[in-house]
């Protein structure tokens, strides 16, 4: 069986591009559709009900375009909306939290695992629940990093301001003896070199989004819905509710691709 329909990716903005980057590498034949709800980013500080509503709006827009699988490439949305959306859709739906938790359990040796994410993700406790369910003896430290997302969305992720913000925000983790830190927000891998520098080379960083693509690949095989190498990838399109120009700049920089197609899309009240 071969299924040419695209895989859909959704995020509050450019964060899900860190998941797409891995998809481009690991799934060379798959078609890709992406929505970033940049106009309403960040989702992190918003009430859970609102994040669920926005996530449904992106999901429905992609369903109308005929996707075969949905990747909720946003931890904040995964934490509050995955179960509901998974139960309601006839296609496979995957979030980024369980793959990240699984990878951290596998990685840690001293059992001290940190999680950094948005206020919404940290408040939901979704990573603690997932981690402790798999390995009850873990010591989990969670920290919200509310300033990171806007640094990324404004394309300042290489700047000295970014370095200062990351150093200040991560200071409370210094004495926690972590050997593993989950980047529990898909925006954070764009800050990875700075985060690694601040937290130290001895701490392994887990990119939950990248881990997710391994599981997407498995599901494509399990449900026998991969696209065939004969067809190959013919579609990779991005939609944003915000500025297509800024989104395109960040996408081309991060994905190291030229001439990415980005279109503006209206959703709900955006
Ligand atoms: N990229 C998102 C995440 O993984 C959300 C960032 C935000 O909008 O606050 O949580």
From TrEMBL:
The enzyme's E.C. designation: 5.1.1.3
Active site residues according to the UniProt entry: 74, 185
Catalytic activity line of the entry: L-glutamate = D-glutamate
Superkingdom of origin: Bacteria
Stretches assigned to coiled coil: none
Entry keywords, A to Z: Cell shape, Cell wall biogenesis/degradation, Isomerase, Peptidoglycan synthesis
Record field: transmembrane: none
Pathway: Cell wall biogenesis; peptidoglycan biosynthesis
GO biological process: cell wall organization; peptidoglycan biosynthetic process; regulation of cell shape
Residues that bind substrate: 11-12, 43-44, 75-76, 186-187
Family, similarity comment: Belongs to the aspartate/glutamate racemases family.
Its job: Provides the (R)-glutamate required for cell wall biosynthesis.
NCBIfam families, alphabetized: glut_race, PRK00865.1-3
Protein's UniProt name: Glutamate racemase
Source organism (scientific name): Candidatus Enterococcus wittei
Taxonomic classification: Bacteria, Bacillati, Bacillota, Bacilli, Lactobacillales
Gene this protein is translated from: murI
